[in-house]
Write a structure and sequence with these properties.
- The structure is a single chain.
- By secondary structure, this protein is α+β, with helices and mostly antiparallel strands.
- The protein folds into two domains: about 80-205, Uridine Diphospho-n-acetylenolpyruvylglucosamine Reductase, domain 3, CATH 3.30.465.10; about 210-515, Vanillyl-alcohol Oxidase, Chain A, domain 3.
- The chain has 18 helices and 17 strands.
- The strands form four sheets. It has an eight-stranded antiparallel β-sheet with strand order 13-10-12-11-15-16-14-17.
- Helix 2 (about 45-50) links the parallel strand 1 and strand 2 (about 70-75).
- Helix 7 (about 285-300) packs antiparallel against helix 10 and helix 16 (about 520-530) packs across helix 18.
- The chain is globular.
- The two termini are about 35 Å apart.
- It binds flavin-adenine dinucleotide.
- Flavin-adenine dinucleotide binds next to strand 1, helix 2, helix 4 and strand 8.
Length: about 575
Amino acid sequence: MTSTVIEPGADGLYHPATEAEVIALVAFARANGKQLRARGSTHSVAWSIYTDPVAGTPPNRTLEQTPPPREINIAFDKMRALHWADEANGVIEVEPGINLGWDPQDPFGVSTLENSLLHQIFERGWAVDTLGGITHQTLAGFTATGSAGGSTRYGWTNAIAFRVVDGMGNAEWIDQSHPQFDAFGTSMGLLGVVTKIRMQLIPIYNIEGTEVTTPITGADAPVDLFGPGSASQPGLRQYLEETPYTRIVWWPQHGAERIQTWKAKRVPASNENLVPYQQFTPDFGGQTLQFLGALIFVSVGNTSPVRIIKLIWQKVGIYLENLGFVLSQGSGSGLSRFLTFLLGCVVGIIALAIGSVLAFFNGLMRNIFARLLPVFQPMTKPGEETKFSDWYWRSLCMDNTVSDGLLGTEFTEIWVPIQHAETVMNLYQKMFEDGGDAATGYFSTEVYGGPPSKGWMHPGYTDGSDAYKDGTVRLDVYWYRDNKGIPNADEAFFEQYWKVLRDNGIPFRLHWGKFVPRFDFAEWAAYYQANLPRFDDFMTLRAARDPDGIFFTEYWRLRLTGSA
Ligand SMILES: Cc1cc2nc3c(=O)[nH]c(=O)nc-3n(C[C@H](O)[C@H](O)[C@H](O)COP(=O)(O)OP(=O)(O)OC[C@H]3O[C@@H](n4cnc5c(N)ncnc54)[C@H](O)[C@@H]3O)c2cc1C
């Protein structure tokens, strides 16, 4: 079936409704020497998603909704259908733009909880094996970057076939019997445009678990982070291997050292006595806490008072918008909701006034950061751990209640073979002790497990007998999204995290949707090639499927070949 070339929308994006329209766009791009990329929900850094930026626009950050002009950037808000191919056996075929859960940032106004993938399959008694910390992403985007949940045991392995349009406009299903199937799981949009994904689901389950905040070391810590472990306290490797789902948030700042340990296991499905995990409650308290946290991060992550004050204005707006939204969803009389919103306005005005003064003393804010942190992240008192027991799709994604507008973070994510877990933790601990604030920054590092994967470009790739065969420990280094600066530039914040591993001969790979080095491209391309055994196979396949390089933007050329 042929189709005419659709026009872009007012937002600069192309919105195909059928595969035929995608094929026509690919043919048009090829004939006219244009680039073509597809976007999901933009939770990756922008240049990895879109065609090449024009005059630095959009900036290379997450959640950039506006594409660069002129080239072809596709959004799949009109291709979100879920089809039950074999309901009795839990097989679905899904279009690429469907969100895993509800995406609160959805610029197209189509995403709801009810039309999300996870909710639709839940209603029929089916589930996926794992989830990341949030479920705002699209199915195609989450899959394309090799994204994963905090588990050495459960990977994102439910995708069993991809329907892909290559750079010449040919569409075909690539299923597990295809010799190159494993290249498609983590393909960053470089092997073609995915128009459908077939998934093998698993029966629905619930999870139950706990969360505690403790000192980093000592008897109260659930894990021996820096040592081999003991009978009463597992070492990190053992802990990650034995705990089905977990993540540890590590605040290493001197004077505030603490870890928040979240863990869960599967239990039989039930709709009774559900207690969801909620990092922030959908009420005045939860929203105000996020707002106050945002004010602190804005103040410590910036040095220009003007920029800080501008950001605080922006945060007040987002806070009131969020508060208005949760109040509109909640119970309570109209009057009480109105008064609560009014209280929020008062909080906003006071915070704006105080924050604007403190903007001129942002150095002081950095000095007292370690004293402020415990207010927001207090140690758990004995017997008061947070307990939850819930549908997996609502609580496994433990960061879903975090507002991207207030507490949005970006990251570099480092996957290290799990046998190096103890060494890596000690290297970073020493780096923090020696480097102080410049090394710790003013946010946390997430420590979790990663499953082994057969995906050629997946950071957990293993051939089954190599160093990655037992899975990985992942260090997800956070960067507050409104910090000043480019964290992946030469000698910027993230470099030290990569360098310390390279200097000490620890192998690692990076998550492709997050920040990777923005310098020494040739050296890093050689590094990726040396550390991903199927790298050359992937590049050969890429060239064959996209001979004109319409998907191969400068961002990817630089990173994967070392030159533009
Ligand atoms: C707050 C936050 C939390 C996160 N939590 C986790 C986590 O817990 N675990 C984890 O592993 N990662 C995590 N990530 C990273 C995130 O999962 C990835 O960046 C993921 O790719 C985002 O999916 P998306 O739908 O936003 O896709 P996008 O970021 O929009 O796109 C990702 C890639 O997919 C390509 N793509 C999208 N659709 C198609 C298509 N139809 N055909 C071909 N290519 C396509 C794009 O071109 C791009 O290369 C997080 C990111 C953020 C910002």
